[in-house]
Amino acid sequence: MAVRSTPGGVVAGRSTKEAIREAAIELFSDKGFEQTSLREVADAVGITKASLYYHYASKQDLLLAIVDPIIDDLHAVADGLDDVEHGPAGQRAVLTRQVRAMLRHRRTVLMFVRDTTAIARAIANRDEELQDARMRVCRWLAGPGATDEGILRAAAAFQVLTVALGSQELVPEADTELIERVVLDAALGVLGVGPDGADGTEGDSAHHG
């Protein structure tokens, strides 16, 4: 465990509530949600189990405190679409926002790998909201009046970005800049947008003829 606690029991530079959440992320990712006790989380932070219950009423509440920010960040990308002008540069900007939102939670997503059922139960009441946000981003990426091919390319590009979520398990030592560049370039390629934000689809072929 890399959680560092002060003699007073609060992780240095963080509130007790945040320290509990960070310790839980590490333990749930390492051991699994079902296999980790709240006493272990409390011990990692340097507080009593009773103190932990003051901040989180149950292990399920603690799990939701970990999962909800992931969904909120992904939803925020969809909510910000109206502020972006559609086009190659805008598509790149939206994909960049999306991949960065995913990268912020790459360590947390190790929990999904170990405890798929537990996580699925935790996000069940927000699954429709999550799917709606995903669909909004995909349709925006495809653009107004998009063809079936355009919609499929947009959905595939979004799916490519999800590699960032699993990158902690795939390449645990890789830095976020490398992951962002590789995943973003791959998604732009699927969408048909050049790395400099230029349109690279066949529809632009007139410029080459």
UniProtKB/TrEMBL annotation:
Residue ranges annotated for the HTH tetR-type domain, each copy included: 14-74
Residues of the DNA-binding region: 37-56
Database matches in Pfam families: TetR_N
The keyword Iron belongs to this UniProt entry's keyword annotation: no
PROSITE patterns: HTH_TETR_2
Acetylation among keywords: no
SUPFAM superfamilies in the record: Homeodomain-like
Keyword entries, A-Z: DNA-binding, Transcription, Transcription regulation
Classification via InterPro entries: Homeodomain-like_sf (IPR009057), HTH-type_TetR-like_transc_reg (IPR050109), HTH_TetR (IPR001647)
Gene3D superfamilies xref list: Tetracycline Repressor, domain 2 (1.10.357.10)
Position of the signal peptide: none
Molecular function as annotated in GO: DNA-binding transcription factor activity; transcription cis-regulatory region binding
Protein name per Swiss-Prot or TrEMBL: HTH tetR-type domain-containing protein
Organism annotation: Nocardia aurantia
Lineage of source species: Bacteria, Bacillati, Actinomycetota, Actinomycetes, Mycobacteriales
